[in-house]
Amino acid sequence: MIARTKRCEACVRRGRSCDGSGIPLSSLDRILQEQRRIKDAERRAELELDESQRRLEEAQRELSEKLARLRRLRQQKEFLVEKGADMVARGLSTLDELEEVERQETPAMPSSQINDAVDAVDWGAVFGSVPGFPLVDPDSAGGTVPVSQGSSNS
Prior knowledge:
The chain has a domain at 20-104. The chain has five helices and two strands, in the order H-H-H-H-H-E-E. It has helices at 9-14, 25-90, 95-105, 111-119, 123-128; strands spanning 135-136, 144-145. Strand 1 and strand 2 form a beta hairpin. Residues 31-83 form a coiled coil.
């Protein structure tokens, strides 16, 4: 630094302004301008990225909807082919006739019969055929009952 001025000797020789740090102010201004330019470019890039991400999410949503529609159409086609083949095999001319025949073939089972069917199963015979499958005795404190190969009704 020169004693009577606030500029460094290099800036005095070059005739430049100086803040006394040894770095010419014009260089500092260029650095600050470049920093602002980069910061603006960074903001624009972030906005573009956000817009691209929004478009990508929209495209993914649209793709999912179209894929689901295609799956539904394929299921409908498969159903139609199965019912059409069944209809032709039975000599029927409409799907309504086929539905009526199917309703007559499968009468509804009352719920009381369904509940009785569960009780009619010989569970000992079912699980007895699986080697090493222990059954828990509900009356014991977590003990197991040995499984025999016969019916549990005897």
